[in-house]
Structure formats: C-alpha cells, structure tokens
Specification:
The protein is mainly α. The protein has six helices and no strands. Helix 3 packs across helix 5. The protein is globular and about 40 Å long. The model has no long low-confidence stretch (mean pLDDT about 90).
Length: about 120
C-alpha cells in the first residue's frame, strides 16, 4: 500500500467518504436531491475536512499519522480556485487517510473515521 501516491489515496478516500455521507443522509430521510446535495456539502467541503483532520491527527497511530503528514505535505499539481491552500492540504490529508483505510481493507477504521468526522462537523 505504501506504493500508492497520496493523490491516489485521496482520490479513493474522497469517493469512499462521499458515499458514506450520501448513504447516511439518505437514510436520515431527506427526500429531495437538492436537500441531499446541500446537506452533503456541509460534510465534504475542504474546510470541514481540514477541521476534522486537525482534530484527529494527535489521536492517530504512527503509520496512520505518517500517511496524513505525507499527504498534507504533497504538492498538488492543481488547486481549486476558491480553495484556501492550507485547508486544501489538510482536506487532502483527510481523504488520503480515508483512502488508506479503504485500500488496506480497514473498513471498520474508515467507518469510524467517517462517523467521527460527521460528529465533529455536526458539533460546529
């Protein structure tokens, strides 16, 4: 798994987290696609993911923390125009950790990470 780039891990982690959030919101009873989308944005935007990652980093094991640091320090080839560069790097680190869990077959850790992320965001 160490051979996968931070960008590849973040790519997979972004998708895994998005599916988790969408399923959670759909099960919560939101019906319209517009409401689902607006609710999901709250959890998947870079600023929210960055906040989560900064809070969770001190609790991570050595290997997991190394994945986060490597992803956070990765120099992206492009960045969204409206993104804060620091928040974007922290969000990428969150997504890379999610991808790391997912690709390593650590589904329980991924689900725990996602549930904790949503809890932290809900507590804002």
């Amino acid at each position: 798994m160490q051979r996968l780039s931070s960008a590849a891990l973040a790519f997979v982690g972004d998708a895994a987290y998005e599916v988790f959030v969408r399923e959670r919101l759909a099960r919560a009873g939101l019906v319209s696609a517009d409401r689902l989308h607006h609710a999901a944005v709250r959890y998947v935007r870079a600023s929210a993911q960055a906040k989560v990652m900064r809070q969770l980093l001190p609790r991570l094991s050595g290997e997991d923390a190394a994945v986060v640091r490597r992803a956070r320090n990765h120099k992206p080839k492009s960045m969204p125009k409206n993104a804060d560069p620091v928040e974007y790097k922290w969000a990428t680190a969150f997504e890379a950790l999610a991808g790391w869990y997912h690709m390593s077959g650590r589904g329980r850790e991924a689900e725990a990470l996602f549930a904790e992320a949503m809890r932290i965001i809900d507590d804002e």
